[in-house]
Design brief:
Layout (H helix, E strand, L loop, with lengths): L3 E5 L23 H12 L3 E6 L4 H12 L11 E6 L21 H6 L9 E5 L2 E2 L2 H13 L6 E8 L10 E8 L5 E12 L5 E5 L5 E4 L4 E9 L3 H16 L9 H11 L3 E5 L6 E2 L6 H14 L9
Parallel strand pairs: 1-2, 1-4, 2-3, 6-12
Antiparallel strand pairs: 4-11, 5-13, 6-11, 7-8, 7-11, 8-9, 9-10
Helix pairs in contact: 1-4, 5-6
Length: about 300
């Protein structure tokens, strides 16, 4: 069994000033997604599902054909691709969309769009985050080991202080695990940044309170492992979410929120996986030079071929 990679690439890049998922950051114009797919193929993934918006879907399809048309998996089979769109009106039929709402419903809503094309264990990643080779290998092994299982998911966790941006505040899902290595809770926090007193603070998305966060707190960078039953569990959670927040103009259905609900109601448990890889990414335009330099360093060290695809 070859797991599937679901790439969250529907973000509009408002803080970045453009489509981050299309920005060439590598020595030969490679995008961050290009590196993620390279690492995923090496780890044994066999299909990539893009979650995009309708207005740039065709642009993304052409990019994929040009970049990955000749990419094959280690077994010689061609890498497969699917494209599905996230639009704000894609909600359960019993709900009426507030006509004043402008944006879709967040990352957990985006993942639900993949149900029509995914029937196997799958990973979820952001299109604008670099996770590293080790992370993909660890998650691919976990997914293969959980084929046919239900109610067991995984999160590749990163230390919070390694995921901050010097250019502005960020959002992260902050988790806690028990002695067996399973999450006991995970809560999305916004406006996370290091303050003048040297401490990290963030706004709890549930309570709205600003709280101090530990430097080494385990956080989600949206690198998750799911078995296909996740879709039904998440749909049930989404219905409950819309019953409470469906008329709000800016409420978002985040993956950490969905997982936290599943942990609390006992429908699923989530294993926390550790990785030796270091995360980096682009949230703001000011982050771009550092990421460009990092990919050049990888090329100089021979960690990746250059160009990445031929």
């Amino acid at each position: 069994m070859k797991p599937t990679l679901l790439v969250l690439a529907a973000g509009m890049g408002s803080r970045y000033g453009g489509l981050k998922q299309m920005d060439g950051l590598g020595p030969n114009g490679e995008t961050i997604i290009d590196y993620s797919i390279y690492d995923a193929v090496e780890a044994g993934f066999g299909k990539v599902v893009y979650i995009v918006r309708e207005y740039f879907k065709e642009q993304m399809i052409e990019h994929v054909k040009e970049k990955y048309g000749n990419v094959t998996c280690p077994d010689g089979e061609p890498l497969q691709f699917e494209f599905v769109t996230q639009e704000l009106e894609k909600i359960p039929s019993q709900f009426t969309l507030n006509p004043e709402r402008e944006k879709p419903w967040g990352t957990a809503h985006a993942v639900l769009m993949g149900e029509e094309v995914i029937n196997e264990p799958f990973a979820v990643i952001n299109g604008d985050d670099y996770y590293g080779k080790d992370s993909f290998k660890i998650l691919a092994d976990w997914l293969r080991a959980h084929e046919g299982k239900t109610g067991e998911y995984a999160l590749v966790g990163f230390e919070l202080d390694n995921t901050l941006s010097e250019s502005g505040a960020v959002s992260r899902g902050i988790g806690a695990a028990d002695e067996t290595g399973f999450l006991t809770n995970v809560v999305e926090h916004h406006k996370i940044a290091r303050a003048e007193d040297g401490k990290i603070y963030g706004e709890n998305s549930v309570t709205g309170e600003t709280v101090e966060l530990a430097d080494k707190a385990l956080c989600s960078m949206n690198m998750w492992g799911f078995t296909p039953d996740y879709f039904q569990n998440s749909k049930d959670t989404f219905v409950a979410f819309l019953e409470n927040h469906g008329n709000e103009l800016k409420s978002e259905f985040y993956i950490p929120y969905a997982i936290d609900c599943m942990i609390k109601n006992g429908s699923a448990k989530t294993e926390l996986l550790s990785t030796s890889s270091r995360w980096f990414g682009v949230t703001f335009q000011e982050d771009r030079p550092g990421v460009v330099a990092k990919f050049q360093e990888f090329a100089d060290q021979g960690i990746y071929p250059t160009p990445l695809y031929k």
